[in-house]
Amino acid sequence: MKVIAVSKTGGLENLCIEERPDPSPGPGEILVRWRATSLNFHDYLVAVGAIPVEEGRIPMSDGAGEVLEVGQGVNTWKKGDHVMSMFFPNWQEGRPSLAKTRAIMGESVDGCMAEKACLPAQSVTAIPQGYSFAEAATLPCAGLTAWRALIEEGALRPGQKVLVEGTGGVSIFGLQLARAAGARVFATTSSPQKAERLKAMGVEAVVNYREDERWGKTLFKLSGGGMDHVLDVGGGSTMQQSIEAAAIGGHIAAIGILGNGRKGEITFPKLFFKHLRMTGLAVGSRYMQQAMVDALENSNLRPVIDRSFGFEELAQAFQYQASAAHFGKIVVEF
Ligand SMILES: NC(=O)c1ccc[n+]([C@@H]2O[C@H](COP(=O)([O-])OP(=O)(O)OC[C@H]3O[C@@H](n4cnc5c(N)ncnc54)[C@H](OP(=O)(O)O)[C@@H]3O)[C@@H](O)[C@H]2O)c1
Questions:
Q1: Is 281 in the pocket of ligand 1 (CB under 6 A)?
Q2: Which of 54, 137, 262, 270 is the most buried (most CB within 10 A)?
Q3: Ligand 1 neighbourhood includes 135 CB (under 6 angstroms)
Q4: CA contacts within 13 A on the Cβ side of 7
Q5: Which CATH superfamily is domain 2-142+284-333 in?
Q6: Helix (H) or strand (E) segment spanning residue 134
């Protein structure tokens, strides 16, 4: 079987296609034929060596595919079932802990950039019925993160106001979930063309964060009192304005860092005088992923796939991701 492996030195030019023996499932395991993966910023950091991994590690946390064989004692899956990976394959349910979150697909354990893989039966979930493999492959990282931020941690209710920042995978899925839940959605982007697409998807007002550096204040005013939920994807690049944009009593999900966002300044009195609740979160558990799958099966929501690449084109797919030309998700199908 073909895999793509990461070199310890990192670098997209060092991603190498290798031929490895077909794996065979042990007790409690399933053999999956991965059919699609999707790109996340975390995968990019692994690929370029910014997150150090073992030599030969198979990258990509997201995968969707078909069960080819089940090992001894597995009765939860059968040949032909369509399944998708979990970012934290050991986090089944409950609060996160070190033991539950130490294993990360495509970082500390092999990921989904392989034609075949053996995994513990409980480290996948079903994909939503009717979803293609490519659509399902957008869900385990970006989809679940937006789901957890808005639904699990945010307890989003119809009529509430939600801010999504930029037009990447997490934000576009957050926009779709929020609209499906009857919320009012506001957004930022750096691109006038993307602003039009956001509006066509039901976004009430869009602010260009490059043209308006006080976009948080602007959105607070435009929304008539601020956001009940903010998906902050930029960390130090965005958090101060996310706090400005939030309504009194609002919820901010601290999800990511963009640009120079590893560190940054915030005005602390705004946190308490606005009675804000801030949740730092990383993806979610199997229980949450299953809840998301159940909800998607009862909705018309379909992930937005910007572009699909082939197996041999992973490096080009990462280059395209780094260009930030995309809207929604980038996938690789094989
Ligand atoms: N905590 C978690 O569990 C989790 C899970 C998934 C992702 N993340 C993190 O969340 C962040 C977003 O991930 P993603 O996969 O959705 O990203 P993505 O697909 O790479 O998209 C990022 C988008 O953000 C916008 N952007 C870029 N620089 C910006 C800045 N300085 N200020 C505001 N917006 C900016 C751009 O949108 P426009 O082109 O529209 O301007 C860009 O397309 C990343 O840091 C990622 O690592 C965290």
A1: yes
A2: 137
A3: no
A4: 9
A5: Medium-chain alcohol dehydrogenases, catalytic domain (3.90.180.10)
A6: helix 133-136
